[in-house]
Amino acid sequence: MKVYLTNLNESWIVDRLRKEWYEYNSHISTENIKEATVVWIIAPWLWRKARKNYLKNKKVICSIYHFEKSDFEQKNLQEFYKRDNYVDLYHVISLKTKEELQKLTNKEIVYIPFWSDQNAWFEIQDKKPIREKYNIPNDSYVVGSFQRDTEGKDLKSPKLIKGPDRFIEIIKTKQAQVENLLILLTGKRRQYVINELKKLNIDFKYFEMVEPKQLNELYNCLDLYIVASRKEGGPQAIVECGLSKTPIISTDVGIASEFLHRESIFTMENFKEAIPNTEFAYEKSIQYGIPQGFSKYIKMMEIFK
Predict the structure, then answer these.
(1) CA dihedral sign, ordered 56, 57, 58, 59
(2) Same domain, 134 and 213
(3) Using one digit for the tens of pLDDT, what is the confidence trace for 100-112?
C-alpha cells in the first residue's frame, strides 16, 4: 500500500498536516500519485487538481471538514456528487460533520480528529519571559484568536461562520470586567476584528502568519483563548490549546464537545459562565498527539490493502 496526499501549498494547517504525515509515515507514502494505491484528498476542493483517470483507477479517501449553508445549494450539491463518484471512503474530523455527510452519501464514513504534534504544542511554565519577548506587559489580561475572519478579498465583510462579530461581543464584556485587556491575533484576513478593536480602543497585537514554534509561544502568552464560531470542522486550535494547556472556551462547534468539558462550552446567552478546564482538554488532546495520533489513520488506509 502506498498513500498519496493531495497538495495544497497555501501555508494553511492542511500543508502542515501533509508535511507531518510524510515525515512520520514515509514507509507507506509516496509523493508520486502514479505510484499510489490510495489517493487521500485531504481538502475536498483539491479533487479538481487530480487527473480523473488516477482517481478512477485508485482507491480514494476524501476528508470533509464541515458544511456551510451554501454547500446544500443545487450548484454545490452537483459538485459534491461529481466528486462522490470517485470517492471510496470519506474521512471527517467531527461527529457533527459525519451526521451531515450521512444525509448526502451512502459511502463509508470514518471519524478521526486530526493529529497534533505535542512537541510543538506544550505548556511553558514561566510566561513572564515570553510576554517580554513579545512586548506584552506582564499585568495584561491576554485573550487570543488565531484564525481568519473576513469573507473575501475586500477584507471588510466578516466571515460569519467564524463568528468574528460574536468574538467582539464577548470582548466588549471582557473590556468592562478586566483591566489591561490585550487581544492577541494571528492568521490572515484579520481586518474585521482589527477594525472593531480600534473602534473600541482595545489594545491588540497582530502576527499575521507564524511558524508552529512561535505560535506555541503565543498560546503560552494567553490568559484565555476564545472560539466563537458558528460552524467549524475543527478547529485545530482546540487541540493545540489542549496540548499547551491554554485556557479555552468555545461554542459547541466541530470537535469542541469531543475535546472540551461541558463547562467550557458556551452559547451567546451564557458565555459569561463558561470556565476553561485545561486538564480535561489536555487529556483528550494527548490521545491525538504524534505518533499515536496516526494509528487510526493507518488503520483507515489498511481497509484498502
Answers:
(1) positive
(2) yes
(3) 999 999 999 999 9
Q: Are residues 60 and 194 in the same domain?
A: no
281 in the same domain as 294 = no
Domain that holds residue 184: 128-286
Taking residue 51's Cβ as centre, other Cβ atoms within 10 Å add up to 10
| Rounded-to-integer distance, Cα 87 and Cα 214, Å | 37
pTM given for the model? 0.89
Whether residue 121 is contained in a domain is answered as: no
Omega of the bond leading into 291 within 30 degrees of 0 (cis) = yes
Q: How far apart are CA 300 and CA 37, in angstroms?
A: 14
Both 25 and 153 in a single domain?
Answer: no
Q: Write out pLDDT tens, residues 183-209.
A: 999 988 889 999 999 999 999 999 988
| Residue 221 and residue 98 share a domain | no
